[in-house]
Amino acid sequence: MSIIFVSLILLPNLSIIVQFFSESNDNWTHIKEHMLSTYITNSIILILFVGVFTALIGTSLAWLISAYDFPLRGFFKWGLILPLAIPPYIGAYTYHGMLNYTGVIQTTLRNQFEITVNQQYFNIMNMPGAIFIFVMFLFPYVFTITKAFLARQSTSLIENARILGSSSWRIYFKVVLPITRASIVAGVSLVILEVLNDYGVVKYYGIQTFTTAIFQTWFGLGDLNSAIKLSGTLMVIILGLLILERVLRGRKRFSFTTTKVKLLKPVPLKGRNKWLAFSYCMGIFSLAFILPLLQLIYWALLTYEKFLSNELFSVIGNTVFVAFFAATIITVMAIVISNFSRLHRGLTAKLFPKITILGYSIPGAVIAVGIVTLFISIDELIYSWGWTSSYILSTSVVMLIFAYIVRYLAVAYNSVESGFERIGTNFTEASRMLGNSVTQSFFKIDLKLIRGAIFGGFILAFIDILKELPLTLILRPFNFETLATNAFNYATNEMIHEAAIPSILIIIISAVAIYFFHYVLERE
Amino acid sequence: MSKKILFFSSIVLILLFLTACGGNESSSNEDELNLYTSRHYDIDDELYQQFEDETGIKVNVIEGSADELIERMKREGEQTADLFYTSDAGRLHRAKEQDLLQSVESDKLNENIPKKLSDEDQEWFGLTKRARVIVYHKDRVDPSELSTYEDLATSKWQDRVLIRSSENIYNQSLLASFIELNGRDEANEWAEGIVDNMARDPQGGDRDQAKGVVAGEGDIAVMNTYYLGGMLNSADDEEVKVAEQLDVFFPNQDTTGTHVNVSGIAVTKHAKNKENAIELIEFLSSDDVQKQFASANYEYPVNPNVEPAETLKQWGDFKEQDINLSILGENNADAVKIFNEVNWK
Q1: I want to staple B218 with a disulfide (CB 3.0 to 4.6 A). Which of A24, A496, B162, B259 is the partner?
Q2: Are A222 and B42 an interchain contact pair (Cβ–Cβ within 8 Å)?
Q3: Are the beta carbons of B242 and A470 separated by less than 8 Å?
Q4: Residue among B60, B207, B333 whose CB faces A221 most closely
Q5: How many CA atoms lie within 13 A of B265 on its CB side?
Q6: Quick check: A439 and B336 CB within 8 A?
Q7: pTM summary value
Q8: ipTM higher than 0.85?
Q9: Under an 8 A CB cutoff, do A102 and B211 touch?
Q10: What stretch of H or E contains B245?
Q11: Half-sphere exposure of residue B112: CA atoms within 13 angstroms, side-chain side
Q12: So which domain of life are we looking at (chain B) (predicted)?
């Protein structure tokens, strides 16, 4: 089964891989000479800083919330996932909207206090600004995955450290960081892939990254082949990095072995520390969620009349339907593949997981080309057999849902895998020895143990699809709008006020989903 | 295992069901039209609705970026949309070059749309027009200082020019027109000069350039007319205030004329409903509809019988570049290369 799944993912990428080995043309020298070196440097700087900051913020928040008790902790548990609901490019537009010359801050200063400020201090459209945007709207990837790990992992390590008198900082650096390494890597690699894929933020902020090079080559030079070559290079680099991490991690595994899975008991914080922890969480939450949301609501109030139509409901319906449907399939596939890879030895078992990443590491627009090619040829085949009177797959939502699967399998997979990593194989082996089959043990034992990770994976995939762009834009059937395409269309036309309503709806739907799953998990 | 099998067979069934629902829509129905567009304006949707009300022909739409849609049409071969609609002549030309469009004969279109704003072989037709102009701060710049685009590259404008990144198609088309009018070498020098004169690294969209001028980061900006029109009529008072401090200058009036570009539409080579498709184009170029275009979006109508919106009329008439707009597409790749060579971000 997992072989079928993996080959499904591989198929659309094949046409890309084939192009990769095609001969290079004149443009290629131009690209190498004028684009690559600065663009690659920029990409590396971006990835490095975003990676480090999301890791620090994500794990520290997860640690605080798992290990300590302080005001609003119960809310932050799920509230800190909410920034994920804001697509980074919307965040980028919103922050620029707040800070620029006609934004709320500068106009207040100008009109109320007659202060005109130096534009440089309020300019967010540069490298540090882009890093800030990515960190704020992507850190929940690390937060969610690490939190799921900390919540159920063997409490004994941390409690022992506490008993032995280690300070909180010491525990964080000496115990928490090392044992959560797998989750951090899982989370950060999602963040990095998301950053490498982004075109909206860097394009608007005028930062030239590797992705810019890909699209300049395609749209500017009209040379899709070279663009695909560039994506292929990116793909290889990413795979290399991921494999390198695996090798470096080596045999270090921190799965628990006892049957007594205790929940980590949060220690109540007192006095100054209590408020410090609270302010830290609240500060991040405000920057990453409340402030942009307020700005969006203000814009929405300027333009809401335009949107009160029935069409909006069909758009909401479309969005939720495809996201839910695709996320479900993705989650099931993630479970099957990671279960296979976990229980089998050998090259294929180790290679499969990496293949799921492929779809996530190539810019969406490029995958879209591969998928259209695939579906057109399937359709031609079906058509030539006389089963149908016209092309049916490539003109329906099936193509889009398939594309989502290719793209976001990695998201759910990473979460599920870190769940499996946590429980190891001991329980399954025990169950097998007691005479259960692999499938039986899976349903009886594993599924129950990693339920949290599965839900986590599902939410991440669901939200990602809600806000997905390039694929939806190009692969959707006629008259099929989603909230994300709606928001994007307005934003790219510099009509940010009009983009506010669909953006807010994306945020609300994601928030409901996040809260619902949080509720389900808490009840267990 | 049986549970799993049940689960997957149900998924397959649902997929088949979805296919059945979705598949019908694009079949060649008599009273339907399939349109790929890269324009995202509310007025467009309203006009398609009007067209349906008048003729009973429903317009099915997929929006996307122009190049992605071109690629999709290429891959789809004979099973593709009837019409392709996008906001840059260069892109239309690219579709034509790839043999995706077909020539259309229509007296109405010849009457409504000036030859210069359409393809030589009638493969695409301009529907709305925009000019890329110089916008200056009323207090800080005396319009007598301004003359041509070429002048902006001289040392007089050191650190005073705001313009967005070279990744933007409007800049690419602007440079493409200079390659045609002044030759590649001069175009190259111009781009180099502008890079030297930039008040800051390119960032943001056209509206951001206007705001940058008012905020004092530079004195002049190069931008499309409809963005300033949109700001003057914005729901946000602060944007209106900014726009009111600015004025429009149409460059090169004594020489080659101001750069214009169009949004244009084309019938695809494999269109199933050619008649309907032509009917829609004729509808969109009619006096009535052109008037709506002009007032909703601050673009110039292509139809000479129709006057532009009040905001645009105040800026007055101007002389346009006298080149066929297909040139913009032909020179696009060269323009991009020049931008990269002079390191225009």
Answers
A1: B162
A2: no
A3: no
A4: B333
A5: 23
A6: no
A7: 0.83
A8: no
A9: yes
A10: none
A11: 21
A12: Bacteria
Strand B32-37 versus strand B58-63 pairing type: parallel
Portions of chain B given CATH number 3.40.190.10: 2-129+261-308, 130-259+320-341
All domains in chain A, ordered by first residue: 2-523 (1.10.3720.10)
Q: Would you call B49 an interface residue with chain A, using a CB distance cutoff of 8 Å?
A: no
**Angle made by CA atoms A288, A95, A143, in degrees to the nearest 5:** 20
Chain A residues whose CB is inside 8 A of the B26 CB are 390-391, 395, 477-478
A478 contacts B60? CB cut-off 8 A: yes
Please check the confidence at residue A283 and state whether its pLDDT lies above 90: yes
Residues from chain B that touch A204, judged by Cβ atoms under 8 A, are: 203-205
Tokens at B345, concatenated: 């971000």
Distance from CA of B297 to the nearest CA of A (A): 11
Contact A463, A320 (CB under 8 A): no
Residue with tokens 């949060």: A266
* CATH architecture group of domain B130-259+320-341: 3-Layer(aba) Sandwich (3.40)
pLDDT for B258: 95
Task: Name the residue facing B68 among A123, A208, A474 (closest C-beta).
Answer: A474
Nearest to A458 by CA among A344, A359, A327: A327
CB contact at 8 A, B149 and B190: yes
Average pLDDT of the segment spanning A504-508: 92
Which pair of tokens denotes residue A471? 């694929």
DSSP B247: E
Chain B segment 291-310 residues within 8 A of A by beta carbon are none
User: Residue A56: what pLDDT?
Assistant: 92
Positive or negative CA dihedral for A336, A341, A347, A351? positive
Which of A395, A489, A490 lies closest to B26 in CB terms? A395
Q: What does the alpha-carbon distance between residue A334 and residue A415 come to, in Å, rounded to a whole number?
A: 9
Per-residue confidence (pLDDT) for residue A515, from 0 to 100:
86
3-state class (DSSP) for residue B18? helix
Say yes or no to pLDDT of A355 above 70: yes
Mean pLDDT confidence for A467-471 = 81
Q: Which CATH architecture has domain B2-129+261-308?
A: 3-Layer(aba) Sandwich (3.40)
B268: β partners: B101
Interface with chain A: mutation pick from B34, B236, B241, B263, highest number of A CBs within 10 Å: B236
Residue among B206, B204, B219, B214 nearest B238 (CA): B214
- CA–CA distance, A461 with A327 (Å, rounded to integer): 5
**Sequence-ordered list of residues with C-beta below 8 angstroms from that of A369, at least 6 positions apart, any chain:** A15, A16, A224, A228, B71, B75
